[in-house]
UniProtKB/TrEMBL annotation, chains A, B, C:
Region of interest (Disordered), residue spans: 402-435
Record keywords: ATP-binding, Disulfide bond, Ion channel, Ion transport, Ligand-gated ion channel, Membrane, Nucleotide-binding, Receptor, Transmembrane, Transmembrane helix, Transport
GO molecular function: ATP binding; extracellularly ATP-gated monoatomic cation channel activity; purinergic nucleotide receptor activity
Cysteine disulfide partners in this protein: C122-C174, C133-C158, C139-C168, C229-C241, C275-C284
Transmembrane parts of this sequence: 33-52, 347-376
Name the UniProt record assigns to this protein: p2X receptor
Residues with glycosylation annotation: N195
Binding residues for ATP: K70, V71, K72, T197, N305, F306, R307, K328
Length: 435, 435, 435
């Protein structure tokens, strides 16, 4: 028994063994059909959904992307009654702020300029709360305070504002912004911006597969041919053109461009690169979609605007005096989002998907077992075949040993015998000593 | 045998069959309790962790987001001993640089202006290494060189700097920046920026579920009511207010705002939208948290600053002379990160989670098998019941056929018989010819 | 039978039971070896690939990151034949536009300035299509039109352009940009930008593990020592230096820096933090890599450029006249991408990986079953051992009851008996009434 040769052989024997579950092979039309149907559902799910539809045979890589944008377009505005604007031509360097942004660009559509501000004293914005005064006493008490929404600390004086109105004086960038001439405008200052075009240059890479693509396809003979194309969802060539008319972007997103211009808004441009690299890389093509990211139907806090200033100095009496032109710029932010992934055949995910699919086949067996063992009239017959009832020494006996008999009443004698045969008898245990 | 009718029927028969494993049903208190306990652990894990806690019954979608920010606030500074600053009111157009950024904003808190620089000749910054000179000879030898950290190529002349110091002359933007008057300032130039507010407008979408939300809730009656709210973590209404006082952001991140202003820093504002769309969409609410992204406790390279310039020309003797105002701006970058996902009930992930859970139940059986077959005193009795020992023709026989006998000694005769019965005898194989 | 005591005991009994599949234990060298080999493959896959290589024993967290950049460098350009440029020193505030960007920076390498533009009338760009005229008649007909690619609406006049050429006059920012003096330049205006350095400050956090790191390591004694380091892939200390020479970035990406400067380009700087937090956190170090994101080998739309303007006003006859300097800036966009994840030991993923591994072991059994039951000569012998053939009442009978006999011909009588014994006889079902 302690023979080392014996143990060696026993160890070797382990390599030449193989365990497989014993199976009850039930021939039954009813259960068979249910079983095959459930198996079909599971196999379909694996094959169609997990492997075919979700491309379970591929490994994937996310896109790495670079986006640069270039807006083009000129508008002319003529507002003789607003001297700050007057007769003006606006170009890219005027309305794209900042001039270069990572994966985004802003197009100014409306503007309230306040030209020639300098640090000095002037009347505060009369629309500010509690700023009206009748004499210096009121303002003197608030001296040094910056009113909520105000433009600078009060100097303590009460001065004339527009008309007969008197307001407290401030020290700050003067004169303060005055939006009233722009209140009743029915169209934005930069009317015509819907015809601006933006060229979105997008270079992508799937590093894992070493595939590089760009959104300028080889459909164009030369720069002129290319420069004349415009994106158009319904045209087989046009839908790959990376030059977009701003109005087309709005229309495709289901937005009225004019709703964006007076109050501003945020649009998203999505470039989707979903590529199946098992096919030719030439089929790896971008798809464009557009969406308004802020909703326009709010009363509170609509649109998008911000203030910026151009600063400069002017030499007066041989010293520099600092000035600035303040602009309240309203417009559309376009955010460019590049998404996508590429898939390519790989052995590992396929094996894993098939493996987990086979594991799920056990579910069909479980469902059929429930039917066979609990629902069919012949359930006790099948239970007998499936189960080998073994009574351990410490079995929990139901109703003092009569229960097994009870449960089996009416079954064949061979079944009764089974229960008897397999009850564990402590005396059998003598062989436990040899290990 | 080759009867096609037979084969057809055999094929049909396949659809009316069903295989289920034969099971040894062991009645034993000890093993039963272990078994049920392990099953309970696994089922709890599936039900509580994978399905309930990790929401295994939902499919998920990531958030699509747009962020725009608007800072408000005015500070007044009065530095009579620094003429470049003097008496000044600073507003948004002065301290937010660039005026509009995608998902981020910078608030300048400290500044070193150098006004009226023009391309000309002047003395180099005296703090630069090896720049001091006694006469032109030294500089002449370095003519054309740009010193490390210098502001332009040396002209070759040695000129007067501050005090009795002589340094080499450069050609470039002159005069060069001089930070010395700002060295001993104990508070930043824009003191009071902690009271600035920022309104963060965040519109999100879960495209898969077609759910759009924004962080301005319907808690407010009108613009004024809304405009007066301030974010406050401890207030049931205030914690949804998207207007933040900069100091509150710092406090909530556990940072002293004053630590950020003199040297600058980087703060992150996280907006988290974790939504359970099985509930009302009104419960899909943002949660705000804040964090300092750079650490302030470093000696090397603390804080955040950059240089920018306002450029302009001045007409002198009817020609334009180009000037610029250079600013070394120190301040706080706020980066807004929107994260979140939404979950909604879906059949597929639930099925997959239940399926993989059932597969894991096999682990309980494996553990119990180890106990029953290797650890219990009655292990040989159970082994007999579980295993049907089959000797293939090419079985690896341990110690020339006596070993199986040996192993079984002491077991009942029926067990010995089992080993004998199932040895494979080549003669049985006659039926192999019919396939 | 309806005794509640009986049911209670039956319910209890459920807790003291344990089911385990009955197993056919086949001793066969051939099948055993195949079985063990397949098990080895699966266990290796689990242990080596899923657990060791893919770190299946860890839970992961994605990196949260903040990036700030600081470019340094001065170039001097001397173009006596281009008065707009002339003799000039360029510093950071001149060539980094905008001065501060979130995770990106732009370095201008080439520029076409158009100084002193003002809103007025001048001759249109002669390179524009259909702009040439002989007299006012042609232009008059187009009055108010903005030509494609033009700079403003036509005034209707035909005026002198360069040389003997006559073109229509426009109203807009005048004079218009004239790129012709820059056409034949063989090197960029800002020659020498390859020596600029950029200091990329990157602070990261793995929030789940509360680990914060930054890319300035404790390798440097003081600011001077640190400031003198330069990134170098091949140096054990230098590869962690976060100060990069632009030319080194290009070289490491396999790009000739000079290819980027004349036409511009887009580079990506990838900072990878892949950290195993089971090891010391000091081993959590950044790795830098570089890549050109746009390809330079295109005819159509090469490089990267944009236009921006500095705006200012000049006092002429005591009123402000608005001017601007327009710049067409060409250069390199550097996009900084921070990626990475940290892993740390966790119990749950380990359990799940082991569990799914054990489930996959069933695949070895399936494969061996196919061999044993369908391919081996002794297949029928093994089938008999594995399968218990049970005929349900509604079994699909192949060739009227002779088929099972037929199929079993040549097998031992005990096998024949099996088929007979287990056919379901409706009379057996009497016990079905007790539930």
């Amino acid at each position: 028994m302690a023979d080392p040769k014996h143990w060696l052989r026993s160890g070797f024997a382990l390599f030449f063994e193989y365990n497989t579950p014993r199976i009850v092979h039930i021939r039954s039309k009813k259960v068979g059909i249910i079983n095959r149907f459930l198996q079909l559902v599971i196999i379909s799910y694996i094959a169609v959904y997990a492997i075919y539809y979700k491309k379970g045979y591929q490994e994937f890589d996310d896109v790495q992307s670079a986006v640069t944008t270039k807006v083009k377009g000129i508008v002319f505005s003529n507002y003789s009654h607003i001297p700050e604007i007057g007769m003006r031509t606006w170009d890219v360097a005027d309305y794209v702020i900042p001039p270069q942004e990572n994966s985004a660009f802003f197009v100014m559509t409306n503007v309230i300029p306040t030209l020639g501000q300098t640090q000095s004293m002037c009347s505060e914005d009369p629309t500010i709360k509690n700023i009206k005064c009748e004499n210096d006493d009121y303002c003197e008490r608030l001296k040094g305070t910056i009113m909520p929404g105000g433009n600078g600390p009060l100097t303590g004086k009460c001065v004339n504002s527009t008309g007969a109105l008197k307001v407290c004086e401030i020290y700050g960038w003067c004169p303060v912004e005055n939006g009233s001439p722009y209140k009743n405008l029915t169209q934005p200052i930069l009317a015509g911006s819907q015809n601006f075009t933006v060229f979105i240059k997008n270079n992508i890479e799937f590093p894992k597969f070493d595939v590089r693509r760009r959104n300028i396809l080889d459909l164009y003979e030369n720069d002129t041919d290319f420069g004349n194309c415009r994106w158009n969802r319904n045209d087989s060539k046009g839908k790959f053109c990376p030059i977009f008319v701003l109005n087309d972007i709005a229309k495709d997103a289901g937005v009225n461009y004019d709703d964006l211009t007076l109050q501003g808004g945020v649009m998203q441009i999505i470039i989707d690169w979903t590529c199946n690299l098992d096919q030719s890389v030439d089929n790896c093509l971008p798809e464009y979609s557009f969406r308004r990211l802020d909703r326009g139907d709010y009363v509170i806090s609509r649109g998008f605007n911000f203030r910026y200033a151009d600063k400069f100095a002017v030499k007066e009496n041989n010293t520099f005096v600092q000035y600035r032109n303040l602009y309240k710029a309203t417009g559309i932010v376009f955010v460019v989002t590049v998404q996508g992934k590429a898939g390519k055949f790989s052995f590992f995910p396929l094996v894993i998907n098939i493996g987990s699919g086979l594991a799920m086949l056990a579910l069909a067996t479980i469902a059929c077992d429930i039917i066979v063992l609990y629902l069919l009239k012949a359930r006790n017959f099948y239970r007998d075949k499936k189960y080998l009832d073994v009574q351990g020494q410490d079995a929990f006996r139901i109703l003092e040993e009569e229960s097994p008999q009870d449960r089996m009443e009416g079954s064949s004698s061979s079944i009764k015998k089974r229960n008897v045969t397999h009850s564990y008898d402590g005396n059998l245990e003598g062989d436990g000593t040899d290990t």
